[in-house]
Write a structure and sequence with these properties.
The complex is a heterodimer of chains A (625) and B (139). Chain A is of the alpha+beta class and 625 residues long. Chain A has four domains: 164 residues, no CATH class; 248 residues, no CATH class; 95 residues, no CATH class; 103 residues, no CATH class. Chain A contains 17 helices and eleven strands. In chain A, the strands form two sheets. In chain A, strands 3, 4, 5, 6, 7 and 8 form a six-stranded antiparallel beta sheet that branches. In chain A, strand 3 and strand 4 form a beta hairpin. Chain A starts with a helix and ends with a helix. Chain B has two domains: 35 residues; 101 residues, Nucleic acid-binding proteins (OB fold (Dihydrolipoamide Acetyltransferase, E2P), Beta Barrel). Chain B contains three helices and seven strands. A five-stranded mixed beta barrel of chain B has the order 2-4-5-7-6. In chain B, 32% of the residues are buried. The chains are: A alpha+beta (625), B alpha+beta (139). The interface between A and B is large, with 49 and 43 residues. Strand 1 of chain A pairs antiparallel with strand 1 of chain B, so a sheet runs across the interface.
């Protein structure tokens, strides 16, 4: 029943798209004021998509196995929370969520843009409707979440257990808010280009959307990363896995765009650059969905895929890119030949330099992600690109990037000089001495690590100083940059100071090295709603005689029958102690991994700070309006 | 001669070109060094020389081939035509089981021995790595 309502709402929603286009075109041609009927129609479309989505949720909650999606991804013994989150934990449901956010955002856009010109609003709506129609057809034709199966099965296949996790339950919605937010930026940029509407006011108005999607994308990536840390049991937070890369690429483009919009708002230069970035951000978001969902990527964590769907998204993507390039080349006029008048020492130059660095990082990630696919298509050679590729190409360029990031905010717009800037040099020397002191004693590559840590400390000190000197001025920017310096510092120290032990132990055995003793005391079993847990008890004795108890867990799920490891993590301000265990069929040995990861909590905290900076900036704009 | 503005722009264009060339060169160079090729046990059998590069080997874990010790685990990867012995010490993923698909990353000692540095498995019970599927299909 709920499925049926869902399906019909979906088709009704598509019909409204055509109504909206009809009314918009009429309104665009004939009247001078914006026809409010269009807003009602948009609202009705949103209503039907929400209804459809609720229909799917209801089917999941009621475990209605006549619905194919529910059958494939749910099970009666699953806790209610994961029945609901299972709605978007699969391909069909997650696309419906995409569509929901697409319609929600265009409705919000129409409400929020009352001060803008009529033609611009309608054109944005039209471009957005093209995307919306594309998704409607995609969902109904290739990935209908409401397919009926007969005879009705008694029991579902269940949701992959490692997806049954609170962080991953909210990770897709948040990430999608960021991804889909870029669709509004895309549509409105195309509209503004067509109408030659790009101005300082437009920059201010679109900045809200850029910031909004940027915050959600940042938080979405953070959630995914935290989940990977404790659930996959690899003890890391970033693996340069293709699926991670496709979320990083739109983030890089969006961050670049965010900074460009600032220049545009102040000086009305770099308009073409903003247009190009808006187009690439959305394209990369679409590509992300395509690559993850189509099964082209051979990744460790793609969960639902089907190659045929990929072709549809690919064609759709090409149409969108073609359309936007057409508009860019034929309609875009450079308004102001101000571009030549950017002085070498100014805030905008520093932003521009780092823009180029970001584009470079983006290119590296893009090539590393796409090259294996490309090579397989042309030569059927199967390869993968490992983390060293990214580390070697990105890490050295972080040094100038961090330095410019530290100096830039302390320069003036238009033209700056170096008077009263002696503190910049002093802080550099202090950072360098501090880094030498820290790195000297360690057994790592001295030169590269010292310079890296120096530049990270430099940004750290300069932004800390700015909190005192500038006080409330530019506070949001300062918090975000401070967060970034903290992030880089934590990652660097995390890499340098991490220790790891991997060994195989039987129950009762003890592992010993010069630093600590790990004693595998016992295991106990526990029965939960949909899994059996085996909990190990480990006593870890440090050199100074301190004993720490860690209890890593193995979960054997009933449906589907999968074993997952739950890491035991003890966190304090300075370090995380991280332990996982695993068994192999018919073996007495347990595979144990024990890690000490310094500053883990600071990595999460610093990303939160970056997001907080964005949020404060968002509220500042709204307050000023 | 040319005006200051023209010279400045000329300089600017040269700068951009140089950075472009440099970054393309860097990316290609490191790409070549860090690419990991995938090979099946049968492909390894017919290799003419053993290279020092890191590679990936994929196939099925042969039934009854796993033996575990405190420091290491030994098993055999097979594509039902040829097989290769693998020695590994490190983290074993949850889905590593006899009779299921596996991909091991590491170095070839000779045509019969592979020193793995990492074992990959996907988190899905029905999953078979794409490479393994292709390698098995070829037989």
């Amino acid at each position: 029943m709920a499925s049926l309502i869902g399906l019909y709402s979906l088709i009704f929603g598509l019909c409204f798209s055509f109504l909206i286009i009809l009314f918009s075109v009429k309104n665009y041609r004939h009247k001078n004021t914006f026809d409010n009927k269009i807003i009602y129609l948009t609202f009705l479309q949103l209503f039907f998509v929400v209804l459809s989505f609720l229909g799917l949720i209801a089917s999941f909650v009621n475990s209605d196995f006549s619905n194919e999606t529910v059958f494939n991804h749910s099970h009666t013994t699953k806790p209610l929370f994961y029945k609901i989150s299972g709605t978007w934990g699969n391909h069909e449901g997650s696309l419906l969520l995409w569509l929901l956010v697409l319609t929600l955002f265009i409705f919000l856009f129409l409400l929020k843009s009352k001060k803008q010109a009529k033609q611009y609003r309608i054109l944005t709506l039209l471009f957005q409707q093209i995307i919306i129609i594309g998704f409607f057809i995609f969902i109904i034709k290739t990935s209908n979440p409401f397919n009926y199966i007969f005879p009705v099965p008694n029991e579902g296949l269940g949701l992959n257990p490692i997806l049954q996790d609170p962080a991953l339950a909210i990770h897709p919605p948040i990430l999608y808010l960021g991804y889909v937010g870029s669709s509004i930026i895309f549509s409105s940029t195309l509209a503004a280009t067509t109408l030659n509407y790009i101005s300082k006011d437009w920059a201010k108005h679109i900045k809200l959307w850029v910031l909004g999607s940027w915050i959600f994308l940042t938080l979405g990536i953070l959630l995914g990363s935290i989940w990977a840390y404790y659930e996959l049991g690899w003890g890391g937070f970033w693996f340069w896995d293709p699926v991670e890369n496709v979320s990083l690429m739109p983030w890089l483009a969006l961050t670049t765009l965010l900074h460009c919009i600032l220049i545009l708002e102040k000086r009305l230069v770099l308009t073409s650059w903003v247009v190009v970035l808006s187009i690439s951000t959305f394209t990369l978001s679409m590509c992300g969905t395509f690559l993850v969902r189509s099964g082209i990527l051979n990744s460790v964590h793609t969960f639902a895929n089907d190659p045929e769907r990929g072709i549809f998204i690919l064609i759709f993507l090409f149409c969108l890119i073609f359309l936007s390039l057409f508009i860019f080349f034929f309609f875009h006029k450079v308004k102001n030949k101000d571009t030549d008048n950017i002085f070498w020492l100014s805030k905008e130059t520093s932003i521009l330099i780092n823009n180029w660095f970001m584009m470079y990082f983006l290119t590296v990630v893009l090539i590393g992600t796409v090259y294996p696919i490309f090579l397989e298509v042309i030569s059927s050679e199967k390869i993968s690109v490992g983390p060293p590729f990214y580390n070697k190409l990105i890490v050295p360029f972080l040094i100038p990037f961090l330095l410019v990031m530290a100096i830039g905010p302390n320069l003036k717009w238009i033209k700056s000089d170096l008077k009263n800037k002696i503190y910049l040099l002093i802080f550099l020397i202090i950072s360098f001495l501090l880094s030498v002191l820290i790195i000297k004693k360690l057994n790592v590559n001295f030169l590269i690590n010292t310079i890296l840590v120096t530049s990270a400390f430099y940004l750290f000190f300069i932004t800390s100083r700015d909190f005192f000197i500038k006080k409330l001025r530019n506070l949001s920017q300062n918090i975000a940059h401070f967060g970034f310096s903290l992030l880089i510092l934590s990652i660097l120290f995390n890499n340098i100071f991490s220790t790891e032990i991997i060994t195989n132990l039987k129950i009762g055995e003890t592992f010993e090295n010069e630093k600590f003793k790990i004693n595998f005391e016992n295991i106990e079993q526990k029965d939960e709603q949909n899994f059996k847990a085996i909990i190990g008890k480990f006593n870890i004795e440090n050199l100074d005689g301190n004993v720490e108890i860690l209890r890593p867990e193995l979960r054997i799920y009933n449906q589907p029958n999968i074993v997952t490891s739950e890491a035991a993590i003890k966190t304090n301000l300075l370090k995380d102690r991280f332990m996982t265990m695993n068994i192999i069929q018919n073996q007495d040995y347990f595979n144990i991994r024990y890690q000490i990861k310094p500053f883990m909590i600071w990595i999460w905290f610093s990303v939160l700070l970056i997001g907080l900076g964005g949020t404060m900036s968002l509220f500042k704009i709204r307050y000023e309006d | 001669m040319y005006g200051r503005k023209v010279r400045l722009r000329f300089f600017f264009i040269i700068l951009i070109l140089l950075t472009l060339i440099l970054s393309v060169f860097l990316i290609l160079k490191y790409l070549e060094e860090n690419v990991v090729y995938f090979q099946s046990p049968s492909e390894i059998k017919v290799l003419s020389e053993i290279k020092k590069n890191k590679i990936r080997v994929g196939g099925m874990v042969k039934i009854d081939s796993i033996s575990m010790k405190e420091k290491e685990i030994k098993f055999i990867i097979t594509d039902f035509k040829n097989e290769i012995n693998v020695i590994y010490s490190g983290v074993i993923p949850n889905l590593f089981t006899e009779g299921k698909g596996v991909v091991a990353e590491g170095y070839l000692k000779d045509k019969n021995f592979f020193l793995a540095t990492k074992i990959l498995a996907k988190h899905d019970e029905n999953y078979m790595p794409l490479e393994v599927k292709a390698a098995l299909k070829e037989k």
